[in-house]
């Protein structure tokens, strides 16, 4: 079986940028946001969050939902252009 491509598409890149923008707007460090996500039951290290924000790691739907909850925004907000946040 061929290896699956890890290329991150436009929606993933947009989500990564928006997560970083919202996190910094709220004055949260990567460590603080990762701890919030973990407290919600979705284990996440600050390294994982760093890689998500840099579009070096895919943000799966479970990560996206937990990040939205931790940032106190609707999940769809993470898929919008960060300029509109």
TrEMBL record:
It comes from the Bacteria. CDD domains: HTH_XRE (cd00093). SMART domains: HTH_XRE (SM00530). Pfam families: HTH_3. Coiled coil: none annotated. SUPFAM superfamilies: lambda repressor-like DNA-binding domains (SSF47413). Residues 19-78 form the HTH cro/C1-type domain. This is Helix-turn-helix domain-containing protein. It comes from Streptomyces tendae.
